[in-house]
Amino acid sequence: MTDRTMLKERFVKWVLITFALSSLLFLFLIFVFILAEGLPLFLKVGLKKIIFGFKWAPTKGYFGIFPMIVSSFLVTFGALVIGAPLGLSCAIYLSEYSGKKTKMFLKPALELLAGIPSVVYGFLGVIYIVPLVRNYLGGSGFSLISTSLILGVMILPTIISISFDAITTVPKTYREASAAMGATKWQTIYKVILPSAKSGILASFILGMGRAIGETMAVIMIAGNALKIPTSILDPLRTLTGNIALELAYATGDHRLGLFSTGIVLMVIIMALNYLANFGIKRKPAK
Amino acid sequence: METKITASNLNLSFGDTHVLKDVTIDVYKNTITGFMGPSGSGKSSLISIINRMIDFENNVRIEGDVLIDGKSILDGSSNPIELRRRVGTVFAVPIPLPRSIFENIAYGPRLKGISDRTSLHHIVEDSLKKAFLWDEVKDRLNTSALKLSGGQQQRLCLARTLALKPEIILLDEPCSGLDPISTAKIEDALSELKSDYTIILVSNNTKQIARISDFSAFFYLGTLIEYNTTDKVFTAPVEKRTEDYIQGKFG
After folding, report:
1. Residue A2 has what pLDDT?
2. Record: fold of B3-98+166-246
3. Which residue in A182, A183, B36, B244 has the fewest CB atoms around it within 10 Å?
């Protein structure tokens, strides 16, 4: 190699490293920024009063976000109840049963599902799901169940694509060994493939949860945003994300800091979920 | 001698490749029949028709018929799941399932609906003993099968097949990746098993075929060249190509 090409190679390498590190830097800055804004309130009001406090009246000095934490987990759990069985079934069908043509049609269609903006989901929810719930189940329709339903559909692409990958990476030889012992297709799926793909499938559920708990736009539009812990699936609720989005525009002073505290709690939850999911993905198929 | 498996005018093609050409052969009950031949001779393909694993391949065309106990296994009324419980297979590469030793062997019986713990224990012990593996693993039946050595894994796969209580055992180059000691153990097991089963052993290793099989079939490029008792095939082969192959002039 000539000196010139060597120099060029090195230049390209450094440019790429700089850009790669800058994205890390953004992450780091977001982290520092949110912590710097939110932590002082934790120190002033107290961790316990914020996380386990029931009353959110930031202009009067109450920063309890416990109902929102519970609500966030409830809608996420609801989304999982709807999305997990649907998504897993779809992944199994795609990898084990569908023909080449069906797969060629279904995979891009599912990817499209992931590309639909969340405001569109919210819109559909307000127009169709909310009245449906109101007319047939009661309440205002802006409720836990409506939100869970929409979120359940929104997390499908995540669950399907990651479960699908986990299932297709189960070695073909396992399928053959199982078939050679007289297993039917479903017996092989149920007894060999799913257990081998277990950690990947769990990871897909957890990442789906992360997606659901972080979703904001669709949730604000359908959840009703009431400040209490829902006691039935027809009750309205307010999530952590919704709280920030709804109030940030006019919040000042401690109120604004309170929203950052909400952000910290949300971030910790999502980071924990991602950590769990990575843990699941990295583990090789059960040994 | 009673005929167990019959292939008559069997032809197999993958797309445009003609893999088996007009193969007609009778395999006898309670014997070990060795299938030998260089790679591409069609011996493994014949096996995959007998256990219907060929169903998992695309673009397959089969003509002719294969009968077990006089009944076709290829016509519409034959159920491949049922068939594979009668025809056990041990593959070239041992493929233990990612579960315990016990569960690997109990897998087949469980599929058949046996769930009673004592019966399963009995089957597992019996199968492991027949595969000459019991003494090595009896104290660690609950450890993962993936922790066993290659030779042990292959005997586990044999035991797993025996647990199905099959009538026929197909072994597709079962010793190709094993050391001589493990190979000897498998061969010992097979020699004892033939009184209860009909065994087909596919092997590239002519010495192995000569050692343990009663009948030998030599395949070349999809054609059955010679088939006779192992004694005859190895001491007085009729075909020049058989003789050359056995002597290692090609392979």
Report:
1. 74
2. Rossmann fold (3.40.50)
3. B244
